[in-house]
Amino acid sequence: MTVHVRAYEAQCAAEESRHAPAGRGAARPGLALFALALGTFAIGAGEFGSNGVIQLFAADLGVSIPVATHAITAYALGVVVGSPLITLLAARVNRRTLLLGLAVLFLVGNGLSALAPDIALLVVFRFVAGSVQGAFFGAGAVVAAYVYGPGRGGKAFATVMGGLTLATVAGSPLATFIGQQAGWRVMYGAVVAVGLLAGLALVAWLPRTADLHGGPIRSELNGLRRRGVWVMVAVPSLGISSIFAVYTFIGPFVTDAARKDPALIPVALAVFGLGMAAGNHFGGRAADRWEHRGLTWGYGGVLGLLALIGVAGNEWPVLLACLFGVGATMMFAIPTIQVRLTSFAPDAPTLMGALNLAALNLANSFGAIGGAITLAAGWGTLSTVWAGFLLTSAGLALYLSTVTGTLHRSRG
């Protein structure tokens, strides 16, 4: 998902001046960036592919879909906890060494997921796999800035994050198809195979240099003292949850609500991914042009689409169009959130990037939990969108009530 590109642009700019002296970079920047992109593709395929096979592992492990969503929630919580924690604990570790260690942890988490004998252990293993994500993106920002040299850090990392975009559009549908044809355990096995290739590429092509050593974290921690930072963590934690109240349950939407063959689930996932890619592209422009409209328009638009799914999502054409629209409108809002967050603590870009990713995955957790609650209450398959509607409404209300007060006062 390219939502993370703008979250780390500030980090790239800060890190390239510290790690990439004039005229220096990697000898083979293209291969190094490819290795990082392959890593983000593997991470995205594992994360988003899980949503497409939730019905499969629920049936195989003998649990209901609401209980099965605990595995999705656990991954998100792994990111929430792991992103800031690993970022801080590994602040002084060489970024190449950190990336290789994270690749190993990724293989362990997903490999054990493929072997999980029950839902309890699957929840634990998905948490382990999720703990890799934020730290990998953050370390990848540093390396991307270094290998391309001064002035090109943002562009370099955008190229790396293309791997996550590809995972959303193609990797997730492909992983779901593999799960449908060969089983959800084989899907995780395929994710491990891609992750192993990425790990080997990182070993072969990432530069070995002291320039990639970490640094002090005092300035990063100072950013936590600013009230505006925490407001902008809460806004996406609540508001973005609706995208996951939909994405997590796309499988049941297709088969139970729209009464279509499970073979169409990958199609629905791909349509959703295309909407996300389009929304992020135009949302980036909106974030650069306007201070607030990207968020308010995006949140407002998704609320209308959620209501439409809730009342007419059992019609296949309506569902498909709304899936694209939800992905597009919510992603339209995210770049504005990321720009606002980093603007409140420009001296703490690494930790702000980690907090941003933690907020998005907390939203993932809230969306999955909210949807599971409505399903467990017996309110029907499409009821999950109303949980998202309430959460996004709360996020929008929080933003509108603080934007002219708390956020502006906290800038200093």
Q: Concise description?
A:
Helix content is 81%, strand content 0%.
What would your notes on this structure say?
This protein is mainly α and 412 residues long. The chain has 19 helices and no strands. Helix 5 runs antiparallel to helix 9 (184-205). The protein starts with a helix and ends with a helix. 60% of the residues are buried.
Number of DSSP helices?
19
β-strand number: 0
What Rg, in angstroms, do the CA atoms define? 20 Å
Low-pLDDT sequence parts? 1-8, 18-23
- Helical amount: over 70%
Helix-strand makeup class? mainly alpha
The amount of beta strand, in percent, is: under 5%
- Gap between N and C termini: 32 Å
Average pLDDT works out at 81
Label the overall shape.
Answer: globular
Outline the biggest β-sheet: none
**H and E string:** HHHHHHHHHHHHHHHHHHH
Write the layout of secondary structure elements.
Blueprint: H1 3-19, H2 29-52, H3 54-61, H4 65-89, H5 95-115, H6 119-130, H7 133-148, H8 153-182, H9 184-205, H10 218-222, H11 227-239, H12 241-247, H13 250-257, H14 265-289, H15 293-312, H16 316-344, H17 349-376, H18 384-402, H19 406-410
Helix pairs in contact: 1-7, 1-8, 1-16, 1-17, 2-7, 2-8, 2-9, 3-4, 4-6, 4-7, 4-17, 5-6, 5-7, 5-9, 7-8, 8-9, 8-14, 11-16, 11-17, 11-18, 12-16, 12-17, 12-18, 14-15, 14-16, 15-16, 15-18, 17-18
